[in-house]
Amino acid sequence: FIWPLNENTRYVPGPLDLNLGSVTLYFTVYGNGACDSVYDQMILCFEPAPIANILNDSIISIGVCAGDSLTVNGQATNDSLHRWTTSGDGHFIWPLNENTRYVPGPSDTITGLVTLYFTVYGNGACDSTYDQIILYINPNPTATITTTNILCFGDSTGSIDLTVNGGTAPYTYS
User: Fold this and answer.
1) Is residue 46 a contact partner of residue 34, using CB atoms and an 8 Å limit?
2) Taking the mean position of all CA atoms in its chain, how far away is CA 85?
3) CA distance 100 to 52
4) Cβ of 59: how many Cβ atoms within 10 Å?
5) Which are the contacts of 119, defined by CB distance < 8 A and separation ≥ 6?
6) Which end of the chain is least crowded, N or C, by CB within 10 Å?
7) Residues 79/120, Cβ–Cβ less than 8 Å
8) For 18-46, what is each residue's pLDDT tens digit?
């Protein structure tokens, strides 16, 4: 106790109390003269803080292609509930499971990124905590072909123009 002789005091748990998970606190009022003393007690339980961890964040930082979904894996410790949420308009197949799939929405694909949150709610009076990652959504590559037909057999007046956007160079033509 910070002020053990004051009726308004504060208790600071010690390492042994925390390791045991609980402590019994006594409040004693001593009587005057021949009056008896009285006391009251309470049991104070300590809950470990919740921990949220996204396990495959190195894979997610690479991103996914537009139109693809992604498996995400979370780990929740000391929790009463855990939930996946997003800053975007996509959805999780199983938002209350540690391991689930995220399906990006149309706005996620247009902006090219979305933040995924794994929130872990603590037991008892413990606050919640979360881990987050940014998922990049890469546009699909496109190829446009423009042709000009040969005017006459044997001429070299025809052409093919190919325009490629996205993907990874070098490109292969065959």
Assistant:
1) no
2) 7
3) 15
4) 14
5) 52, 82, 83, 84, 85, 128, 129, 130
6) C
7) yes
8) 888 888 988 888 888 888 999 899 888 88
Query: What per-residue confidence (pLDDT) applies to 117?
Result: 97
pLDDT of residue 134: 92
Query: How many residues are recorded in the chain?
Result: 174
Per-residue CA distances from 1 to 11, 42, 51, 98 (Å): 4, 14, 29, 40
Q: Where are the alpha helices (DSSP H) in 66-162?
A: 106-111
Q: Which residues of the chain have pLDDT under 70?
A: 1-3, 59-61
Q: What is the pLDDT of residue 1?
A: 66
| Number of other residues whose CB lies within 10 A of the CB of residue 15 | 7
One-letter amino acid at 60 equals: I
CA 63 – CA 111 distance, rounded (Å):
13
Q: Which residue has the tokens 């090219």?
A: 112
Radius of gyration of the chain (CA): 32
pLDDT reported for residue 73: 95
Sign of the dihedral defined by the CA atoms of residues 103, 107, 113, 118, in that order: negative
Q: Are 79 and 49 in contact (CB under 8 A)?
A: no
Q: For residues 37 and 31, is the Cβ–Cβ distance under 8 A?
A: yes
The first and second tokens of residue 37, run together, are 């003393």
